[in-house]
Amino acid sequence: MKTKVILKKLLSSHQNESFTNFMPLNSALVSDIRKAVPAIFDELGGPSLLKSSGEVFIKPNAVDAKAYSHTRVEVLREIILYWKKTGAKKIYLLENSTQANYTRLVYSATGYARLCRETGAKPIYLDEEKSRSLPFSGRGPAGAKEPDGYDLTTFNMPETVMRLIEERNRHLYINVPKLKTHSMGVVTLGVKNQWGFPMQKCRGFDHNYNLPHKLTDVLGHIRPDITLIEGVEGTIHGHYFATALADKQVKPFRVLIAGTNVVATDIVGARIFGLGVEDVPHLKIAIERGLSDGVNGPQDIELSGDLASLEKINLIGDMPACGHYPWDLYPEFPPDVTVIKGNKLVCREGCLNNPLCVMQTMYKDNAGKGGWTLVLGKGHDTSVIDKINGRVLVAGHCAIEEVSEKLIKRLGRKKVYLSGECNNLCSTVEAMFHLMKVNPISYVPVNPLVSSIAFLMARLKGSTSRVPHPLSHIIKRV
Asked: Domain DUF362, which positions (predicted)?
């Protein structure tokens, strides 16, 4: 028996203005969403989907407040209102935003906090919760017996998510990712959206070739009851980008994709970009580990709604000749930053694309300065390292272990910036704020007073988020 996935097209046109101007959706599109969301949930089972507690937990993609990086508030509103009308006793909107951020601020900047006030949904800031340890079980610890194993074999899971795991038969859990490619994970849809569950300090390790394995490890602990992919827009060249590049990276696909099988739903989402299971490592691994309930590919999916086939999809008529949209970073970076890569372990999932993404965003949106060097990976030519002059950021533990001591001895600690693990995003951002002379306050799209209040509240409530110092553009921190 095939697994159903629903795809609804939103027929109204998107904005006529440049996508560099991020705007609320027009009334016609909102009306389409208002019709499509109830139709999707009704087809999936409607009120019968509610479980014994009557509680609904909704996980958006609120990685950041950057334009097009988060789930549209207009879609979340209709989801909340549907379950409110259906008789849900309580509705929660839960998230644990990306490293170098804290969820309260993201909720304030995206309109999620206001949405909760207006609808009665309760916000849950997972970074402020206590947590419990769970295993990353896909691979053993790194060592002689398993050289590609994990550096970190356990992680901390917030209490609310532990409750969903332990009481999965009592609560309805709805996963609402945004339709995005990802420069480290190829796509970020339902499976990748759950990477927001582990506490931030557990995400920087093994954010390398092991990332797809760890995404699947989290899926092994918790799977959503429903995944609804918000594709009002899709993003190519990655999941988080400079707003200045939006016209090159935003695609007005205007679709909603939903199902009760997260892997099947993700397969359909990936096909919108022209990508298959073989292109997305974490989907391939999830299938191999038996986490797809028998779905191995498009042949096991029954489409419902407004799409007849998963073959040769070209929703807006601009699919590249190669048959898929690009997912790697758009190639536009500051010309006066020298990037030196080793000949081993320059992982796009970690020390390569994370720093490049941050650098590109600060350069394009915040007039970030160049005139420095970025060193990545291992297996470096010592003669090249010996020629480095001026300020240098060494990103990733591989590069730090190999070249940092020598650079510090020759250049002095003041000129050498270090960002450890495979992806310590907070340290990378702090380093670049200082190197590129970007004020952290200008990097956040909210009033500085609002930002300060949110920061203080998060700290008072016990947030464990790793957040850059507000004066890191002035004070060298790493």
From this structure: 56-271
